[in-house]
Write a structure and sequence with these properties.
- This protein is an all-alpha fold.
- Helices cover 84% and strands 0% of the residues.
- The radius of gyration is 19 Å and the shape is globular.
Amino acid sequence: YLSLLPIIGGVALASLKELDFKLKALIFALAANQAAAFKNVVAKKTNKENWAKKLGPQNMYAVVTILAFLATMPLVLFQDLPHLKGLYQGLEAAGKLKDLVKFAVFSGLNFYIYNEFSFLALSKLSPVTHSVANTLKRVVIIVASCIVFRTPTTFLGNVGSAIAVLGTLLYSLSKKKYSGSAH
């Protein structure tokens, strides 16, 4: 687990000089990461149960998604319901309501497909390896976005990203050496 420190440190270093830092966003991001890690651990254990094996990873992911939707809906309604009427009226007045619905459905379907593949990968990997791969994916997406959208980056951000990527390699090598397993 010591090999995880460069990944955590690299991501922290890359984020250190973030121009628009909000504590509330950090708290919700940390909570989302904890929830995802918890979901991975529980799913990995649940996938070993006979009833879950009968469902298969794809159907198991569908059940988890439905339960997550039901569990989070009260929070979403509490947080967003007061703002929906004004948002709806503003989008309708601007002629953007159809675009919002179209892009939300497209985004939701893509996210569901991505997560289903992720759930399939989890059935083959340990939860820690899966989380490390997910962290690496995020770093790659950030770097690719900076290149595609020509977003200027700081030296510190570049060093942090490089440390996170190298930390992922270190984790992978140490996992292989000490567990005798490639995953």
